[in-house]
Amino acid sequence: MRFWLGGYTADMEGAASGIGTLVAGSADDGSAAGALSFTGTAAGADSPSWIAQHPSLEVVYAALESAQTVAAFVRTGEGTLAPLGRPVEAGVAVCHVAVAPDGGSLIACCWGDGRVVRIPLGGAGQLHEPSLGAAAADPFAGPVDPFADAVFEVSAGQDAAVESELAAAARSLRSAVGDEFAAYVPGYDLDGTEEPTGGVLLGGTGSVDDVVLPDRVSRAHAALFLPDGRIATTDLGFDLVRIWRPAADGLRLDHDVVLPRGTGPRHMVLHPSGHLHVVTEYTCEVFTLGAGADGRWRLLGGIAASALRADDDSAAELARSRDGEFLYAGLRGSNTIATLRVRGAGERVEQVGLADAGVDWPRHHVIVRDTVLVAGQRSDDVVSLTLDARTGVPGRVRHRTEAPTPTCILPVR
To answer: CB–CB of 153/161 below 8 Å?
Structure first.
């Protein structure tokens, strides 16, 4: 089976040369269980960190993260691509692209400046003039009650558990941002006598009412087309899942769904039941959203990806099994893959297990039948793990190949 590989090039301190090619087993096999081999560069490009396929054409779109553009490439051979027109400007640190099911447009998300950009596509898949969606507003711009219904619902007797979750989230976020910005992390985990490393806790009590939030930054991170034609995007910086409607002039914001402060929603998968599962980078949780009869999406619940996650973990990709029974969250730091099972009618998720990812910094992974392929950004390799048919948990590394700074794995159609 063939795959395209996104990667970081020298402009982002990586070793890739552009979009790479990967083969698992036989190139024409529908399984990814065979031996892996990196077969070279399909097309030169500057840090194509995320790549996506046109639904009906042999065209691949890449987020050129450092160049702040989106580029299109047309397939010219078994493992070769050629530029299709000129790249189109998107925004600072564009990190994700998603193509509409009808092939008429794509959505680009920009981590650096929070932009959500709609780019129309021509009949041959070429990129047209982009349009910009409305900027996000921080729902936590002022003092907030962390137990308010607008954020998430808690029942009587749950306050202590929620406070514990907030403390864990603060510890994780403080570890992720480092000493330089630790002072800006809300002090849910401090008792008022401590100082966050590198600064002073504002207010001095550790209470949310006494913490003055600094100016936060919008960081759009991923997009997903919903079955009804609307589009969901994550804003990692403002803790939002934003719901959009396509319009003649670009995008129209329908509504926002607010996640708990400091969670950092990153990537999403749509469950066959219609529920939306979202993994959070900072707190390594999986939240479930559902659409009501009025069409508005609401937060239904959330759970830690694993009870065994390390304090310095940050979540990356979220993938699901074909039947939707299992979810898989990549955790960078401990370099593990967390397995979760979807219960009920898709609205409930429970922890199953935690497995070694087999790579350093599992930036991305994909599920192909009974195999999970994992891209090791820092170890410069891709591995395959076999999924246990009963538990769904990945086993030990089955195959490995060297691959330069891989960041995204895309099956070739």
So the answer is: no
H or E stretch covering 173 = helix 159-177
Reading the block at residue 162, the tokens are 């929620």
pLDDT tens sequence across 117-145: 999 999 999 999 999 999 999 999 965 44
For residue 53 the two structure tokens come to: 């396929």
The answer to whether the beta carbons of residues 270 and 342 sit under 8 Å apart is no
Which structure tokens are listed for 387?
A: 């999924």
CA-only gyration radius of the chain, Å: 21
Query: Can you tell me the distance from the alpha carbon of 232 to that of 236, in angstroms, rounded to the nearest whole number?
Result: 13
Over residues 165-218, the pLDDT tens digits come to 455 555 555 555 455 455 545 554 554 434 333 322 222 223 333 333 446 999
Indicate the burial class of 279 (C-beta count within 10 angstroms; 0-12, 13-18, 19 or more): buried
pTM (two decimals): 0.84
**CA–CA separation, 215 and 237 (whole Å):** 10
User: For residue 7, what is the enclosing H or E element?
Assistant: strand 2-7
What letter would DSSP give residue 127?
Answer: B
CB-based burial, 45-80: b 16+ in 10 Å, e otherwise: bbbbbbbbbbeebebbbbbbbbbbbbbbbbbeeebe
CA max distance for the chain: 64
Supply angle C-alpha 343, 366, 316, rounded to 5.
80
